[in-house]
Amino acid sequence: MVLLDLIKVLLHQKELDQAYESIQELMGRDNVAEHQKYRLILCLGEYHIRKQDWSQAIEILTGLAEKLQGKREAFGRLFADLYNLLGTAWYLSNKFLDAYKYYSLAFQYSNRYHETDLLVARITYNLGNTCRQLRFHDEAKEYLEKARTYFIDLSDQLNLARSLYLLGIVHRNMDDLENAGGYLKQSLALYESLEIIEWVETAKRVYAFYVLSYDHPQEAIEELRSQALILKEAKDFNTLALTYARIADLHLESKETSEAGRFVGMAASLFEHVIEEPNKEYFAHVLTTNAKYHLQINKYEDCIELAFKSAEILGKMDLDREMAESLEIVKSAYKAKGDTSKALETAEQINSVLFRTLRPQVMP
């Protein structure tokens, strides 16, 4: 149906009001086939995702999944698309285990029912990215490598650059600095060739913090400070706060405590006085860095309070490995102040959190 294809184009171009009107018009017609009605519901779910109404998108798409449970064989490709959209809605809601569940189901259906195409490539990329977020390192590497191959075959340079960028982060998380640097440099070169300036600067920041800082921490700090000026001018205050925190992290590693305090203070001030819609993950990172700073200056009670706040946010986002790292700071603070019982209690909490990081089984 031509109008259905037009709706997809409108959604892609973010002409959301016009897309919604077209969806409603088609849904009201009597001559729309059953499979086309299901596609319209998918479009409605995507509309709500693009409107950042995650809960409404999840409700609509979950309802469709329940309606089609007995028709999996007939609508395999639609299920792949449906579960991919559900994964995206959960991912953007910062519920990464739910995102992992639905992207995994989408991956199973996409590989079962049809040949490799852009949908398969995107699902594979989304699953790899979610595994990266959850720190399922080996899986993230496997899926992102597959996505990279798919995007090469499809001549999709933008998504190839994104895959290389994420592979760089995954290899850095696996302490493979050589491959991390190689992938990040490849992604940077592609972004530059595509003239996507925002992502050029993002790749530079990530390379500086994750790779350059290992052997050349002062050069990394200078690069991040230059990037901070760009972000300030662009009024991207969430990313600016994260960048200040990362500068503070590098100063803390070099025991340059006063400079670390200055930058983490600037980051915290942005969230307190400037940022109206905080990025929760970035805010948690700032709290973690602030906690490490207070641990380094022996202000243990402040350290514990900040680290617990960070752990609470990260736990709600299913980022249990990062939550455990925040709790490690709490444990260190308790040990430093001589409170052995609290340190042991926190260690037990850490073990409980890390137990949750075991990869869940996903059944179709």
From TrEMBL:
InterPro entries: TPR-like_helical_dom_sf (IPR011990), TPR_rpt (IPR019734)
Matching PANTHER family: FUNGAL LIPASE-LIKE DOMAIN-CONTAINING PROTEIN (PTHR19959:SF119), KINESIN LIGHT CHAIN (PTHR19959)
Protein name per its UniProtKB record: Tetratricopeptide repeat protein
Organism: Tumebacillus permanentifrigoris
Phylogenetic classification of the source organism: Bacteria, Bacillati, Bacillota, Bacilli, Bacillales
